[in-house]
């Protein structure tokens, strides 16, 4: 494709049209890496600033996404949760992928620990803990349901935080005054219950990806037991494994 530098259409818009047409024709599919800025500069004989502007606008339009050190990619509807990038929350993971989302706080209350919760959080039976329920929405679709069980003995006043807009790990570190260190995490495929199906707007017994994790602070104490149910057609878990 040649750029018409005499056209009334700005050059960066012509570059944007070229990229969009490549995607529409299937030459660049969802998740594919597109040509580098240098290659596009040489192809169109234009400045780096022009290419950067075109790509930046397409990122804003949610057509492309940029990954630091890796390049520019066509937006993929599936949301990756990369295990190899260390311990990050789902909100931090989605933000790093340039995915806009909204969090709805459904329930926040103090509860008395039963035997199972007490054992998992390493607190006494009958101690208070904070129970939170939330959903996350991406592109007007509810994609996950989250339950958090927080050891409030380690984080006084943590029940006053803004769980609809702040990252859980940031909240935990702020109120506990300790860094989140590591988690014990497991994944499983599970059928959706009636309650979760209603929250996620899916059929009962639909397949879900279930995550459960115990989050430890730097002093090895357990601050949170988290449970997350994710639409299996929207999430995948990725990892990089090195041969020993």
TrEMBL record:
Signal peptide: none annotated. Keywords: DNA-binding, Transcription, Transcription regulation. It comes from Enterococcus avium (Streptococcus avium). The keyword Lipid biosynthesis does not apply. InterPro entries: Bact_HTH_transcr_reg, Chorismate_lyase_/UTRA_dom_sf, Tscrpt_reg_HTH_GntR, UTRA, WH-like_DNA-bd_sf, WH_DNA-bd_sf. It comes from the Bacteria. The keyword Membrane does not apply. Gene3D superfamilies: Chorismate lyase-like (3.40.1410.10), Winged helix-like DNA-binding domain superfamily/Winged helix DNA-binding domain (1.10.10.10). This is GntR family transcriptional regulator. Residues 9-77 form the HTH gntR-type domain. GO terms for biological process: negative regulation of DNA-templated transcription. Pfam families: GntR (PF00392), UTRA (PF07702). One of its GO terms (molecular function) is DNA-binding transcription factor activity.
